[in-house]
């Protein structure tokens, strides 16, 4: 009996904490037209002549600081998720891990899944963005063009309100003494505002992102708000106890606000001394969490007058997160019953054709 293939895809990481490896990674990542969506020649000049030469030394040093004996934290945690999910699902499934950029590549990983009758693709990004989920869906379809036999495929686009995911984040937070914090911050990866408006020209007007509706479906900003609300609900926080910001801005173009560094300065000015930070754009700890937040922003917050800024560990190998992934995949769950011709309907996930 043919197995159901499961393809987990994360963003990527350099193969080693060296300048050549980091340069290869940054080049492949930043030259993706869904990431920097400028005209071809302008993108080439910006990336090859300006961005990489300016950032390569610093970025390499950051990777060297977080690198572990087994590899980069993102790769270590992603492999653990793959192995735990395989154990959870059992022999009727073949779980594979790919990275959108560098290794293991989507192309090579799809080769391992040749022969499966059905395939489920899960991006390891809870919120949809063209620069992440859209890009990996496009790359998967590009690679599949050469296949003689293409299996039936379910593309998950996003899962911002997944209850098990929210509870897993909440449990990570409860591992700390929550009573010692006077503010809880949800920091999401930033995007250029232009990307948001390209997807939905009506976004960011009034209270458009205060709830998920058919009009803002797959809007990255709205889904970030939704994820934060889900974790807030799981923790029982009041509205005045938390706020949102966006990190990792690149360049001078207007990105989603408030910018993390400015927001931290304002929190310190308002008298907040001890802040606990969630990073729910990421399901595995990586350079953006354990260095950008836990090192750089923690240091900046103290300069601004705060006392401590602590990071909530990412989902990594949390059992509830593995259960959440499993529920997106099992054919007896409501997701695949609908997609693979079974009876029960689903409103949570849809076939995606980016």
Automatic annotation (TrEMBL):
GO terms for cellular component: cytoplasm. Its EC number is 4.98.1.1. It comes from the Bacteria. Gene3D superfamilies: 3.40.50.1400. InterPro entries: Ferrochelatase (IPR001015), Ferrochelatase_C (IPR033644), Ferrochelatase_N (IPR033659). Its main location: cytoplasm. The keyword Hydrolase does not apply. It is found in: Cytoplasm. Fe(2+) binds at residues 189, 288. It catalyses: heme b + 2 H(+) = protoporphyrin IX + Fe(2+); Fe-coproporphyrin III + 2 H(+) = coproporphyrin III + Fe(2+). One of its GO terms (biological process) is heme biosynthetic process. Pathway: Porphyrin-containing compound metabolism; protoheme biosynthesis; protoheme from protoporphyrin-IX: step 1/1. Coiled coil: none annotated. Keywords: Cytoplasm, Heme biosynthesis, Iron, Lyase, Metal-binding, Porphyrin biosynthesis. Belongs to the ferrochelatase family. Catalyzes the ferrous insertion into protoporphyrin IX. This is Ferrochelatase. It comes from Candidatus Criblamydia sequanensis CRIB-18. The lineage of its organism: Bacteria, Pseudomonadati, Chlamydiota, Chlamydiia, Parachlamydiales. The gene is hemH.
